[in-house]
Amino acid sequence: MLLLLLVLLAVLFPGGDNQEASQGPTSYRVMQISSFANSTWTQNRGSGWLDDLQIHGWNSDTGTAIFLKPWSKGNLSDAEVTELEEIFRVYFFGFTKEVQERISDLQLEYPFEIQGVAGCELHSGGTTESFLKGAIEGLEFLSINYTCWPSPGGGSRAEKVCELVAKYKGIFDTIENLLYETCPRYLLSVLEAGKVDLQRQVKPKVWLSSGPSPRPGHLLLVCHVSGFYPKHVWVMWMRGEQVQLGTQQGDFLPNVDGTWYLRATLDVAAKEAGGLACRVKHSSLGGQDLVLYWGSSISVGLIILAVIVPCLVFLMGLALWFWRRWSYQDIE
Ligand SMILES: *[C@@H]1O[C@H](CO)[C@@H](O)[C@H](O)[C@H]1NC(C)=O
Ligand SMILES: *[C@@H]1O[C@H](CO)[C@@H](O)[C@H](O)[C@H]1NC(C)=O
Ligand SMILES: *[C@@H]1O[C@H](CO)[C@@H](O)[C@H](O)[C@H]1NC(C)=O
């Protein structure tokens, strides 16, 4: 019976990027990463995500869920949580055992990794779509939506697994129930429970710097955008109203407080840097884009220098004058 659980493998897929940025997340997914190092060493990692925000972990020693947010349970009762933990405990145990027993049958060789993702997504109009996908070494090999579908690249291994799935009606029913009943119900309730956190708007801080010179006579302009939430953001180097298509975006990096960091760089000839600006659009800014001009921070430095240096010279002159006067008075 546990064979069927094999099917629950899921693969990590990037979060949907089609949702309205200010509406918060629209999907929930459970992720599994199982590493099989050799015939005696296996590790199962489990986690739960609302789009790109992790809200659940899995303690594989105790076989219990870790709730990373005070609202991570949604409106699930304690009894339901206990039941779900039991399902996952049995699943991870059975999954590991089934895979280990079928290494040659499934043409697997140590070491290898199996990934799985299963969950549901809310669409505009209130409909939900559920999904379950499995991958071996990052290559999708099957997906389930009422039926098991071997992926085009999954080969005979995928067909074999789907044939097995078809034989175990009971487990298939449990999976379907989790995907099409529990998941949408839980998703709605957790989005409601975490609303204040999930729909918060945090403004980005923006600053400019120069990176290592890409080639002689060129500058690498770096626009840092940090501390914003939600993740969706637009950052571009501009000349007037003209977007600089050479702008390169880095990866989104998470800050410890759950906000995001992103940098956008532009390689330009040093003499063309003047007049360039970094423009940032984000839902927290209420339509007021942030615009920082390259060179303006340098001219602020120059102004400070231009004011402070004469002041210092003047003060030193004054001190010298007083000191001389005192000296003359002493002599008199
Ligand atoms: C199995 O893999 C683990 C983790 O890499 C390693 O510590 C252990 O020594 C290996 N055991 C055998 C029998 O190869
Ligand atoms: C399920 O997935 C398959 C393959 O991706 C697709 O052809 C089929 O239309 C889907 N069926 C449903 C009911 O979503
Ligand atoms: C939990 O929330 C879902 C979605 O809002 C709802 O359909 C369900 O009835 C709620 N369950 C309980 C026990 O309140």
TrEMBL record:
Gene3D superfamilies: Immunoglobulins (2.60.40.10), MHC class I-like antigen recognition-like (3.30.500.10). It comes from the Eukaryota. InterPro entries: Ig-like_dom, Ig-like_dom_sf, Ig-like_fold, Ig_C1-set, MHC_class-I_related, MHC_I-like_Ag-recog, MHC_I-like_Ag-recog_sf, MHC_I/II-like_Ag-recog. The chain crosses the membrane at residues 291-323. GO terms for biological process: adaptive immune response; antigen processing and presentation, endogenous lipid antigen via MHC class Ib; antigen processing and presentation, exogenous lipid antigen via MHC class Ib; positive regulation of interleukin-2 production; positive regulation of interleukin-4 production; positive regulation of NK T cell activation; positive regulation of T cell mediated cytotoxicity. It is a single-pass type I membrane protein. The keyword Signal applies. One of its GO terms (cellular component) is extracellular space. CDD domains: IgC1_CD1. Keywords: Adaptive immunity, Cell membrane, Disulfide bond, Endosome, Glycoprotein, Immunity, Immunoglobulin domain, Lysosome, Membrane, Signal, Transmembrane, Transmembrane helix. Residues 184-284 form the Ig-like domain. Its main location: membrane. Residues 1-18 form the signal peptide. One of its GO terms (molecular function) is lipopeptide binding. It is found in: Cell membrane; Endosome membrane; Lysosome membrane. Antigen-presenting protein that binds self and non-self lipid and glycolipid antigens and presents them to T-cell receptors on natural killer T-cells. Heterodimer with B2M (beta-2-microglobulin). Interacts with saposin C. This is Ig-like domain-containing protein. It comes from Sciurus vulgaris (Eurasian red squirrel).
